[in-house]
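Researcher: Here's the sequence for the chain we discussed earlier.
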Amino acid sequence: MLAAVITAAGLFFALWWMLVGGGDEAPWLPAGLAASVVLLVALSAREVVMRRAWTRYLLENGIHEQSKSRTSSGSQRKGFSASLHSAALRAIQKQSVAADAPGSSPEAHLDVAQLCHDYLASTDDPSSSGSGSDKRLAIRAGQERVRVLHKHHLLTWARLQSRALTREAQQRARTSDKIETANKALECIDSALRVYPDESELKESNLAIGEYITSVKVAHWVELAERSAYKGHHRRAIDRYKDALFYLNQGMVKEDVRAAGAERIEREITKLRTKVRANSGPRPDDDRKVEVSD
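Model: Thanks. This is the structure I predict for it:
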């Protein structure tokens, strides 16, 4: 906040000086507005950071500190732990609502999923569950709610992040950049699949991104083969068609798409081989030389 205040003050005086030199009648007004915007952004960022830090403190330190303070009375220990669990759960639910708001980033869902993971790891500790039946029931109820939130936000993050990366990959010009960015999207889906391996939405997204990567590789080598064939380099074109066929067979593609693509590539290879054999036949001049020698 000190750095934000210094920055805002510097921006205010810099704009004020520039506007005074430009003959503005009220230079302090736009300068003050700019400085106020800087302070508001800094305050908003501080609020987000402090809220996340407080939640992580409750999850990582507060619950475990309660389990270590065994010298206190049993009733005090029970009330302290229950308040910590309740505060952590409220903080998670508050951030969950904020992450589900329109316009939120995929990272907001990932943060909530991480907080849910920390909560579940802390409440699974036997030392934090206590001995009271009411307390155990409350913790189990909280765990069920957090598990639902964890799945929702992790799947939402994987869906939004993979879509954003896939769109970015489609806008890239170079083939290597397309594949690299699409692989990042595939890593997002794979990380969620390791937690929820039976989720059909993740499997479909994984297949769709894999098909996109395969199509990029195959299209790249087919384009190179077509260029070689146009220039008359038939043998080189055959080799590049074979590379395209290799990536098609090794990639994540549906069987009907794979069969159709392989058939088209094999047909082009056959045409090129016919041209190669035609060009490698005996020339007319060679035939005349053979007749004269005979």
